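Summary for the lay section of the report: proteins are chains of building blocks that fold into shapes. Here we show the chain for DNA-binding response OmpR family regulator and then a coded description of the shape we predicted for it.
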Amino acid sequence: MMSQQPTVAIIEDNDDLREELTFFLQHRGHTVWGADSAESFWKRLHRNPADIVLVDLGLPGEDGFEVIEYLTGVGKFGVIIVTARGQQPDRIRGLNLGADLYLVKPVNFSELASAIQALWQRIQHERDDTGIAHYSENAGSDHWRLLASRQCLTTPGGETMQLSPQEYELLRILGRSASEVFSKEALLDLMFKYDENPDPHRIDVILSRLRKKARQHNISLPLRSIFGKGLVFVDPIKE
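The coded shape description reads as follows.
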């Protein structure tokens, strides 16, 4: 039996609005937590469950569309866009990425609460049918694995992707410190510390190959690029 109210995460860089939404939804009985950027959200996500995520599009660094693409790719979250952007191209893009609702600011809080409740009822029915629980680090076997003996990555859903030695090492470094942001310079130093003059573009090449391989396998990697800071693997990886 699931909780009667969903846990809501709010990604909103306007501190006043984020706090007002948090207070309002908590008063309605929700567990709520917030983040002021995509980077902050990724850092908290693997420690905090969430059922529905409210996403602003105009975020600093990684924008809301990139966040939505990952969340809907994973398929465990309800996603509601709450943004000042009312243009049709933005609406179409957000909904095509898989967002459940697109709301334009200023948003009536009571209407938003009703939309959350309606979306939650739909999600509950879907989860009852599939047996999917909400996102949590400790949710059964719901984790990524690196298998050294086979040099491959296994997804929470059981799919397997073969890795090159460098791809394996990159994921091993990122996955052992889930949600820690590594600059490309730090990764270069950790992976090629015995090279006197390592090519600074080697991380980009490895990353490009890894993402291309994941797309070919229809695997959505929780690997995010944080603008101006580096890379983060959002979920923990077990070895």
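Put simply, here is one thing we learned. The radius of gyration is 19 Å.
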